[in-house]
Design goal:
By secondary structure, the chain is α+β, with helices and mostly antiparallel strands. It has 2 domains: 7-92; 96-215, Sandwich (Immunoglobulin-like). The protein is built from 3 helices and 12 strands. The chain has helices at residues 7-10, 25-41, 51-92, and strands at residues 96-100, 103-107, 110-117, 121-129, 135-144, 147-154, 163-172, 175-176, 179-193, 196-201, 205-208, 214-215. Strands 1, 2, 3, 4, 5, 6, 7, 8, 9, 10, 11 and 12 form a 12-stranded antiparallel β-sheet that branches. Strand 4 (121-129) and strand 5 (135-144) form a beta hairpin. Helix 2 packs antiparallel against helix 3 (51-92).
Length: 216
C-alpha cells in the first residue's frame, strides 16, 4: 500500500514549525531521498505512488532548505548592520545636534535656538525666559517663511552653562502661525540595542536617533 511522504519528518521536525529543522541541510535532504527511494522500492505495483505528490513534496524539501539558507544570510547581514551602526555611532560622540525642545543653554556667552514654522509669518517674536519663567529679553525677528529658522541670543554677563528657555510667537496678519521649538544639545555616548541606536545627550538624556532633527 502506498504511504505519504512527510518531508518535515525527514527533517527531524513537524510541519507546523520549520524552525525546528536540522541545521544540517545536506543530511536532511539525504534522509528524505533515502525514505523516498525505500518507499518506491516497496510500493504496491497495483497502486503506484502519484508523480504529482512526489514532485510536490520534493519542492517542499527544496523550499525548507532555501528558507534555512535565507535565514542564515539575513542573520549575517543584520550582524554586519549592527556593527556598522555602532561604528557610525562612535563618530557621533561630541557632535552637537538639534532636537525638539525649548532649552537655551549658554555657551561662550551665547544661547543658540531654532524653530520650525508651518507657514509664512509677517512677524516672529522669540522671548527668552530665565529659570523663574520671567522674560529676560525679547527678540523681534520680523517676517519669516515656512520652514526652519535659527537665532542667537547674546547673553551678556550670564554665566556659561546657565539654562534658559524660550518661546516663539509667529503671526500672519491676525492669525497665529503654529511653530515648533528646537534646541541644541550634545552627544556624549551612543548605544545600540536590537538594531536601534540611542543617543545619550548632555541636556535631554536618552533620545532615539530618529528624533534628531539635524547635526550641527
Amino acid at each position: 500500500m502506498s504511504t505519504t511522504i512527510d518531508p518535515f519528518a525527514a527533517l527531524g521536525g513537524s510541519s507546523t514549525s520549520s524552525k525546528t529543522a536540522t541545521a544540517n541541510e545536506a543530511g536532511a535532504a539525504d534522509r528524505f531521498l533515502k525514505l523516498l527511494v525505500t518507499q518506491m522500492q516497496n510500493q504496491d505495483p497495483l497502486n503506484p505512488m502519484d508523480n504529482a505528490q512526489i514532485t510536490s513534496q520534493m519542492a517542499q524539501i527544496n523550499t525548507v532548505s532555501g528558507i534555512e539558507k535565507l535565514n542564515t544570510t539575513v542573520e549575517g547581514l543584520n550582524a554586519q548592520f549592527v556593527q556598522m551602526q555602532a561604528l557610525q555611532g562612535a563618530a557621533l560622540v561630541g557632535r552637537d545636534v538639534t532636537l525638539e525642545g525649548n532649552g537655551l543653554w549658554i555657551e561662550n556667552g551665547v544661547g543658540v535656538g531654532a524653530f520650525d514654522l508651518t507657514g509664512a509669518a509677517d512677524n516672529v517674536k522669540v522671548e527668552v525666559l530665565d529659570a523663574s519663567g520671567r522674560v529676560a529679553e525679547t527678540l523681534q525677528l520680523g517676517a519669516a517663511g515656512a520652514g526652519r529658522h535659527s537665532f542667537d541670543w547674546k547673553a551678556g554677563t550670564v554665566a556659561d552653562g546657565s539654562l534658559y528657555t524660550f518661546r516663539v510667537t509667529a503671526q500672519s496678519g491676525t492669525a497665529t502661525v503654529p511653530s515648533t521649538a528646537l534646541m541644541r544639545d550634545r552627544i556624549y555616548a551612543v548605544s545600540t540595542d536590537g538594531g536601534s541606536m540611542t543617543l545619550e545627550t548632555a541636556r535631554s538624556g536618552s533620545v532615539d536617533y530618529a528624533d534628531v532633527k539635524a547635526f550641527n
